User: Fold these one by one.
Assistant:
Number 1:
Amino acid sequence: MTVRTRFAPSPTGYLHIGGVRTALFNWLFARQHNGQFVLRIDDTDQQRNVEAALQPILEGFRWLGIDWDEGPEVDGPYGPYFQSQRADRYQAAVEKLLETGAAYHDYARPEEVQAEREAAEKAKTQFSYSRTWMAESAEQRAAYEQEGRQAVVRLKMPREGSLIISDLIRGDVTFEWAREQDHVIQRADGSCLYHLATVVDDHDFQISHVIRAEEHLSNTPRQIFIAQSLGYELPQFAHVPYVAEPGSRTKLSKRKLSKYLKNRDFANLNDLGLKIADQLDLETDTDTFNPVIVDFYEQVGFLADAIVNYLLLLGWSLDDRTEFFSREEMIRDFSLERVNKAPASFDCLKLMAFEKHYMQELPLKQKVAKCLPFLQQAKLVTSPPPCDISEKVTKIVTAAGDRLTVAGDILDFKEFFVGNNEFEYEEKAFGKRLEKAPESVELLRSFREVLSDATAFDAETLEILLKGFVTEKEIKIGQIIHALRVAVTGKGVGFGMFETLEVLGKDSCLKRIDRTLAKLPT
RNA sequence: GGCCCCUUCGUCUAGCGGUCUAGGACUCCGGCCUUUCACGCCGGCAACACGGGUUCGAGUCCCGUAGGGGUCACCA
């Protein structure tokens, strides 16, 4: 049997991080079994702009390297892959269900059903539709229509017995048919509802394993009823736990941003994103730009591998110690049996730890390549970049080392890309290291002359110069180095001092020191 | 409320009856390194929800309780 899995996003305009994890599990399972991973678009409620709302989702998957064998843009033998284009299939299924008596026309008005529901609630009994307005013959239908009633199609669910679902993750789960409702599968206007559509599609696409979020577990009985009534062979089910809020067990939702922002780590991540986005002139509307949405990570320069690896371990593990997986390894090692049953909460700090790790592992050339677009977008570097810029960025990226966690962090070093009179001084650092340290200013003044006389300006030479200066003046290096850093970068912190000077070059260093000294009393 | 699911350090998790005075990772807290900030290194704090069984023996099996969550639409 060919393994075929699917992920069915609604075209909402963004890709939710929890959804990605579900998609990832589907993708891994399909790849592991040399099967196919299908993307089906759940657009049954006819959004206006499906195409526009779909693009960010497809883009997100592409960025993460989760490729689909069939679906939008690639099509496939079982298409169309948009539910809005499959109405005829659903219609045929409805007719078959009606024919076999598994479904019926129901002429109840919504308020009539609602009244029954409320009565049951008041009586504290289990609600079960009376089927009063059920019409199974042409005569009955005509009579109701005479009254001006319209029909929906309902499932004629069994009212006794039970169903055991053998879930690949949860084991056997038992449901009583009597608790199930005669769900509507087709509206009066002929449009079909989700549960019917999903069952028909999964069958048409020959999906072998339905791997989806656990919130669908309770919906599974009715889907099984539909499938069996239609004579379909059942797929295997695997209900994965959802991704929960930071520090909680509640399902992560994009609508509760303000709540998550109260979580310190989440807020920090969000701030990191905002800081970078601000310099890039990005749209930062919280609806589309926040750590619950995959786009966020791409835009601020996260590594897709880090996100994927983190998500993989959110609810799954191989053993008691393996943390890092290449794509090949995760495809090889993944298994549904080892997916946890309990929800896992989204931990920004852990995600950052993976990002740091992958960034450290990234070859220098690729790091530079990741950073350049950010410098361009922030207009710190022209597009196309001048030919010597790559060398300069390489030096900075090297010197920055682990200080670059996401590619957008390169913008923390913008002082290297602006004019000597344009970089800004951090007030605090300026005060502490210069204004309130007149002796350091004096040392800076004399070290400026040493630099001025320097014939070579590489980090190694500069270190020898400064160390010699320190020995000669009989001072501690800290007495000059902090002042020097503020003088040439405007900042109190940064990477190695000598690398800083080298990257700036002699001319810039002298000009910057002069500019700084000019701001101070003599 | 009915039904269903879940419950090991703050978080992600290992554990499938004895090797568990519960292991790893992230976080946090010390210390070292150091020109700042990071990195790195060393060390430390920290958990089997509770109560009954079963068993020679339970984190591991069973039953309750509590807590958390999901689902009960002419949404997906």
Note: The first strand of chain A starts at residue 4 and ends at 7.
Number 2:
Amino acid sequence: MENFAEINPNYWESIHQIQDYSWGGLEETFSGSYDSSSPDGTQSVPTSKNIVSERNRRKKLNDRLFALRAVVPNITKMNKASIIKDAIDYIQSLHDQESTIQAELIELQSQKLGFKSLDSSPMGKSKKKRVDEAFESKVQPIEILELNVSYVGEKTVLVGLKCSKRKDTIVRLCEVFESLNLIILTANISAVSERLFTTLFIQGEEEEMDALKMKIETAIKVFDNPQI
Amino acid sequence: MENFAEINPNYWESIHQIQDYSWGGLEETFSGSYDSSSPDGTQSVPTSKNIVSERNRRKKLNDRLFALRAVVPNITKMNKASIIKDAIDYIQSLHDQESTIQAELIELQSQKLGFKSLDSSPMGKSKKKRVDEAFESKVQPIEILELNVSYVGEKTVLVGLKCSKRKDTIVRLCEVFESLNLIILTANISAVSERLFTTLFIQGEEEEMDALKMKIETAIKVFDNPQI
DNA sequence: CTAGACACGTGATCC
DNA sequence: TGGATCACGTGTCTA
């Protein structure tokens, strides 16, 4: 029953080989036999043409159905109706999955940016919202006011950064520094009015200082311009 | 041509009403007429049954095709073959979209956790990876070793937290505190070996202390158990 | 008028 | 056996 598809995956084609004695590229040659079956030559020619056309139409439709079966997993039966039914169910499951994944994306984005949905419902109910809207809103760039990188000996680099403070600056700044895969010995972040003062002690060599400064600057810029 | 679907959306059904004179619930009554067409009663009865069965089969297949057309947007033509083709294209576009969104999700997760893909290609090429794998791996819980919340006057609350330090503890901790929508005056984070010492000055009232301590604890636990 | 699309009835096949 | 499925040829309608 259900192993039928595995045993004979080309069900219709096998039927073709059994029943369809005028398949393949032999249609034109067989038009003569159709003429022999109908002695009056006036009406026989369009009839055979219609037969060929209808044959091609059926073949195209079956090929389309076969292609549809190829892109849909979890095919239960090889029926035409079942294939269409499985395709419908699969599309609907893809719709649900897409909504769920987009909800997850929005949840993650709001966690990264706004942090407004912690005490809301456990599973974010705000489905069916375009993810582009969540991306294009609430980007809070980090404005670098001052950046000093100095070597203080003992394989230790001191980084001083003064920047603007917006809603999520602290988190984004931590992300920037974590993204650089540095060994952070001590971090001190102080917020005064709208300014943010950061002092880092990082394990590093003296010759890495200039590269490190460039790295931090570009990392902050990259983080402020998400390429999505 | 292309407005044909809007003018007559029930193309096949209208065809039914014109051509199919034995539709609806009248199949049984019409079996007599089929018997009249074939005088030999022995073979006529199974033939009429087969006719009815085939009619139902065709109707079911058309209904399925109609339902498929309903779940697929951007239908170009009303042809059977075109409907199946549009469904195939739509499923493949959904596949691509799903891969893209999952890549974005993985990218976001890796940004939040590992921070390994900053200097890679701008558009993450690591498609076709299950998102569940990205979720179930690399969860680094924050282990609370000590948590003190004390009131120091002047509408200022001092929070001291000692916890374990793993790869992404600092970022996650900042996320926790940002999620509470507190007014952070000063933050000091120091990492020594595998321990993380955090000192926060928060703007708050004395009577909010116990609630604040509970809030921080639960927030950390909630962040360590993402409900996805 | 021609070409394309559809439903119909029928015989064959499979389980 | 018989119910379900399929391909086929044909008539009909529309663009």
Note: The beta strands of chain B are 144-151, 156-164, 184-192, 195-203.
Number 3:
Amino acid sequence: MGRQKIQIKKIEKKNSLEVTFSKCRTGLFKKAGELCILCGAEAAVIVFSPGRRAFVFGHPSADAIIDRFLHRETNSRALVPAGQVHGYVQRQYLEALGRLEVKREQEETVGGDEEGGFWWDAPIENMGLNELEQFRGFLEKLRKKVADRVEEMTMIMMMESVMVEYAAPPQEYNSSGVLHGYDLAAHGIPHGFDFGFGFDGHLF
Amino acid sequence: MGRQKIQIKKIEKKNSLEVTFSKCRTGLFKKAGELCILCGAEAAVIVFSPGRRAFVFGHPSADAIIDRFLHRETNSRALVPAGQVHGYVQRQYLEALGRLEVKREQEETVGGDEEGGFWWDAPIENMGLNELEQFRGFLEKLRKKVADRVEEMTMIMMMESVMVEYAAPPQEYNSSGVLHGYDLAAHGIPHGFDFGFGFDGHLF
DNA sequence: CAACCTATTTATAAAGT
DNA sequence: TACTTTATAAATAGGTT
């Protein structure tokens, strides 16, 4: 959204990339906060910049959400039974390749596309048209689905959430960590603030 | 955004809340995917619906991001030293306090929370095969929805990301969790697909 | 560089089918 | 119930300060 439409592919210009990263990350956190408040949901967002900086949003707190997720993850069965769906979807995926191939050609006609080398350029000779049809539909649907004041909102998010940047370089790690019960406050980091935007031109 | 502006506060109407939750979650995942692709970032998003269902997005995978985050979290010091909260942010925070007071009062007036029992709270213990059937039907339907513009981005997101819904009820939790090394694949959950969208009143 | 502009693109609240 | 359409609110790409 903006003055000009951009393709969803990696931004080349370093500077633009930095600006976009900052803006979009902020926007992402805001959206997450809105979702939480509007729907009474709870969410956590973790973002690693290309420069390995970590940015985190959480409501009511990132650690709470992650812990909950991990706990659930490790102690319960997934909703969808294992191999069955996997196989089905995988087949759909393969079927999709052909569809995508078709799509790519269509788009090439329209205008300058990327220079190629995408995963969907994979061979599709073995696929049934019917299957391709199906998966295209699947993708279409997914695209659709997946497809007051800013300040007030932001403030609420800040108050009830954690938005902190962790950026200690990996090299400095030590092994004294505690997994659960790690406490941001213990590090002197107040909850509810986002230190994480902007680029310093070093870590990123 | 929409026909009418809405306040960022918990949606009262159950139905609207459901719709909004679905839309916003989808939008959130999409934004996260865009951020990853545009900026070469990596991100994970975990969302718990009010009904405790978990929806996850991850690029390249949620578990990878979370694991990375936890390691970093527990083994390093935060980059930003304690009290160095930017003055600006702190000021905003204080301002927000006042606003929140007002907001709370307004919300109290309105009152009326959900009585629980959202569609996404539907029990899933017994789904098994039946569920598979639904999923299959779901994919079939997708096909018919074929619009004509599957953005490359969406496909990239799909193939390189994880968007899965976990819905095992919290009551089944036990305390034997393993923090690291949990493996989505081990549960038969393929990366790159979102089973969790759509509302049929049963599965989604 | 961090904020601040807007022209446009996106997202989405409601209403429609 | 599910999907589509439409009007509007939001987000944001590229500039400007």
Note: The first strand of chain B starts at residue 42 and ends at 48.
